[in-house]
Design goal:
It comes from Streptomyces pyxinae. The protein is 29% helix and 24% strand. By secondary structure, it is α+β, with helices and mostly antiparallel strands. It has two domains: 142 residues, PurM-like, N-terminal domain (60s Ribosomal Protein L30, Chain: A, 2-Layer Sandwich), CATH 3.30.1330.10; 166 residues, PurM-like C-terminal domain (Phosphoribosyl-aminoimidazole Synthetase, Chain A, domain 2, Alpha-Beta Complex). Strand 3 and strand 4 form a beta hairpin. Helix 2 runs parallel beside helix 3 and helix 5 runs antiparallel to helix 8.
């Protein structure tokens, strides 16, 4: 696995190193037909119901940042992973790993933030667990959440379903979360405060499905940013993706911050955005439904799927050329979720 015999930070970044770790280590160990789809959540039937199930762990540093906290991320991240299967999120679990010496008041603030986020997302934190590790063997607070939700009959969303001709839509401006984390972590000022976009997206997905139950694929572009999500779907479905660079919704503040830091906004994490692959004939209706919802009011069409260059993502530049938007090796900004 790229000549590494030990875990490095890049293995947790959502890029090529993460993909190799899953493909060559975890997937062979756990091989089964439910896991093989490798979506944001697993979809399966239990009794007469079709369920989505997802889990995620949060190690963000700092714990609190402009626009949110580790508590918001833990709830919204799992809610959004369930929603990317078209599910209606219902119940979450919560596991805290606490370092000896962390202030109880800080733990309380995180728990309160999680409770508020759960109520806003209309989900119930139904069970949980707490573990404490020795001082120096953690980083204050780590959080794990898992969740289940119900997938409506007739909904079949997955990365393998993207098809040539699909319109590629994104729900709004990208890159804010990663830049917000970095600005606080490194004490940087950009003239205006950049806030994380953390938000639950199940309501937006429900509105989109009401307009078009035939949505092919959804993904929330967190670690590795929009570029990673597009590459994962292109690889899973075998389609090519062609973006229009001028259509990419990068806020000026994020673009300026990324230019200062030497980052590409396409690879910077988001926590309240989604990318959708929609049959072309339904693209206008889905866009209209997205723009009518508070979490999708700035939704735009950014590209299309093609039979050309299968499994690859390319972008038509403003200068009339074309560049390959590759899968990153690791993560530009570690510890962002």
């Amino acid at each position: 696995m790229r000549d590494h015999d030990k875990i490095i930070m890049g293995h947790g970044g959502g890029g090529a190193l993460s993909a190799e770790l899953v493909e060559h280590l975890f997937a062979p160990a756990f091989r089964n037909e439910v896991l093989d789809d490798l979506g944001d959540s697993a979809a399966f039937r239990l009794g007469g119901a079709r369920l989505a199930f997802s889990t995620d762990s949060y190690v963000v540093r700092p714990l609190f940042f402009p626009g949110g906290s580790i508590g918001d991320l833990a709830v919204n991240g799992t809610v959004n992973d369930l929603a990317m299967s078209g599910a209606r999120p219902a119940y979450l679990s919560c596991g805290f790993i606490l370092e000896e010496g962390v202030e109880l008041s800080l733990v309380g603030r995180v728990a309160e933030a999680m409770g508020a986020a759960a109520r806003a997302a209309d989900v119930v934190v139904a069970t949980g667990d707490t573990k404490v590790v020795d001082a120096g063997h953690g980083d204050g607070i780590f959080v794990n959440t898992a969740g289940v939700g119900l997938i409506p009959e007739g909904v079949d969303i997955g990365p393998r379903r993207a098809a040539p001709g699909d319109a590629v839509l994104v729900s709004g401006p990208i890159g804010a979360h990663g830049v917000a984390i970095m600005s606080v972590r490194e004490g940087l000022e950009f003239g205006v405060e950049i806030e994380s976009d953390t938000a639950p997206l199940a309501g937006l997905v429900a509105a989109m499905l009401a307009a078009c139950p035939e949505i092919h694929a959804l993904r929330d572009p967190t670690r590795g940013g929009l570029a990673t999500s597009l590459n994962e779907i292109a690889a899973a479905s075998g389609v090519g993706v062609r973006l229009a660079e001028h259509a990419l919704p990068v806020p000026e503040t994020v673009a300026n911050a990324c230019a200062f830091l030497g980052l590409d906004p396409l690879y910077v994490a988001n926590e309240g955005k989604l990318v959708a692959f929609v049959p072309a004939e339904h693209a206008d209706a889905v866009l209209e439904a997205m723009r009518a919802h508070p979490d999708g009011k700035e939704a735009v069409l950014i590209g299309t799927c093609t039979e050309e260059h299968p499994g690859m993502v390319v972008s038509a530049t403003r200068l009339g050329g074309t560049r390959v938007v590759d899968l990153p090796l690791g993560e530009q900004l570690p510890r962002i979720c």
